[in-house]
Amino acid sequence: MRSLDDIQYAVETTKVLHEPDRRIKTFGETRFEFQLITELMDEVGLVRIRSGEIEAARPLILRPTAPLDVELDGFDDSMRAHLEKMLDQLRASGGNLAFLQYGFTIRRQNLREQIVKESLESVKERALDAVRISGNPSLAIIEGVDDAWEISLLKFSFDMILSSHGINAFDFKRRGLL
Questions:
Q1: Torsion angle of C-alpha atoms 101, 19, 126, 145, degrees rounded to 10
Q2: What pTM value is reported for the model?
Q3: Does residue 41 sit in helix, strand or coil?
């Protein structure tokens, strides 16, 4: 089990060296390929390259069960009154609170791993050169932390959600779904 410090360190040091050319599709599943490059913690000059796939499910629209059914718990009375007034205004204007839910699957059966005896910098350069040559639009190259590599993948997934959310919300609104 990872400590909070391990998780925070992995999140802070994970870098997406090459983003996929596309975002999460609004109306279908999206498959991303990844190469996760990590330096081994206990060996100098050894780099692990993990390759695999992440599948992003189609975003789902989540709505409160009743129109603007929002529970205000833990606020002091003055703040609660202000928030209730804001919610009443939204209800009166026909406002609709909806959220997009994203889901990812990391397919471990497609996970490949290799260890190379090279510097981290040369492995990163070689991976970036290869993606430039191939032009693979679904490939992400990620630099992460070896013993918390799953956290590095989650960080990448979260970044993809953040960069896709605006586009997905626009697509839903354009079709009258939000």
A1: -40
A2: 0.72
A3: coil
Q: Give how many domains the chain has, as a whole number.
A: 2
Range of the domain at 152: 15-62+102-174
Distance, in Å, from the CA atom of 151 to the CA atom of 153, rounded to the nearest integer, reads: 5
Spatial separation of the C-alpha atoms in residues 54 and 64, rounded to whole Å: 29
64-107 residue pLDDT tens:
655 555 555 655 666 666 567 666 666 665 545 566 666 766 55
In-domain check, residue 8: no
3-state secondary structure of 174: helix
Question: Is residue 111 in some structural domain?
Answer: yes
Q: Residues near 100 by Cβ (< 8 Å), separated by ≥ 6?
A: 59, 60, 61, 62, 165, 168, 169, 172
Please give the structure tokens belonging to residue 90.
């939204």
161 and 130 in a single domain? The answer is yes
Q: Kindly state whether residues 153 and 77 are assigned to the same domain.
A: no
